[in-house]
Amino acid sequence: MKLFKASNGEEIFIIDAHIALWDGSKENQLNIHGEQFISCFYDYHKNLSPKEYWWPKDEFVKYSPEKLVNDVFMEGYVDMAIFQPVLLKEFYKNGFGNFDANEELSKKYPNRFICNGTFDPRHGERGLEKLEENKEKYNWQGVKLYTADWYGNSKGYKLSDDWSKRYLEKCQELGIRNIHIHKGPTITPLNRDAFDVADVDDAASCFPELNFIVEHVGLPRLEDFCWIATQEKNVYAGLSVAIALIHTRPRYFAHIISELLYWLDEDRIIFGSDYAIWEPKWIIEKFLEFELPEDIQEETGVTFDLEVKKKILAGNAARLYNIDIEKQKEKLKNCQLSKRIA
Fold this sequence. Notes:
Layout: E1 4-5, E2 11-12, E3 15-19, H1 32-48, H2 57-60, H3 65-74, E4 80-83, H4 99-108, E5 113-115, H5 124-138, E6 142-145, H6 162-174, E7 178-182, H7 199-206, E8 211-215, H8 222-231, E9 235-238, H9 245-248, H10 250-263, E10 269-270, H11 280-289, H12 294-300, H13 306-320, H14 325-332
Parallel strand pairs: 3-4, 4-5, 6-7, 7-8, 8-9, 9-10
Antiparallel strand pairs: 1-2
């Protein structure tokens, strides 16, 4: 497997805090919305990836666990990765993500994966019981929430809803401390407004013991997100999607990362590739090489050196998930992936 070395020769430990193993295949699609959703993912993949990293669509809609391991760990420089599954049961017969498939891969490659889960507060009491069962079965440390997911006639929910608060209370009770929330670009056919970042403010205030990782940093509502996160110290910026802009829109990415560093500081920004929409290899390479334009640097006065990048690539996620990086390096030295190094 490839280990990323900085220009000073230092090996950089990397935690990819946002990956998925999905099934968007025709066989799993429940209706036209399943095709719309995965096709929208594929458009993001091709529009933002370097051309040499484009996948054929038939591979993109459903890829093997072996491909994930190769792209993320063997080629992608990643040392650990966190699964962030979503339900989408209105679009896919067996759901888009699969807890058991994630768990199986985690057991096959010990110490490489953290398997998060998900819930939908519209499932009521039944869902609360299931959340408790899943915590016991999978020992979730976090959940990924999709507030624009459909359920029956409902096309979304808010974290400020009464039932959402019941579920967040249950998470707090069970020790599920990391709440990852998709608050970013819309995906066909989901509603853009249901991904609005405003409800994070209330949730973070009500549950100061929980960590709210806003995936995709609220894009296109970056300003709203920053104003919330600067006040709520338990709100974090998940860089997935935003970081992919580093290739096609480097100055826009410079704006995003400088705003995050200015308002949140370097301790609340977390790397995620959003695999398999994008592969971590090219993103990590470009991120570690990236420098802020001089005018943006002068205006914001933020620091974006190797030490800051190391925090974003691993240190901040390690703190949220109680990972001792030095001890983790020792655990991984003799794992079967490390033994495949040429």
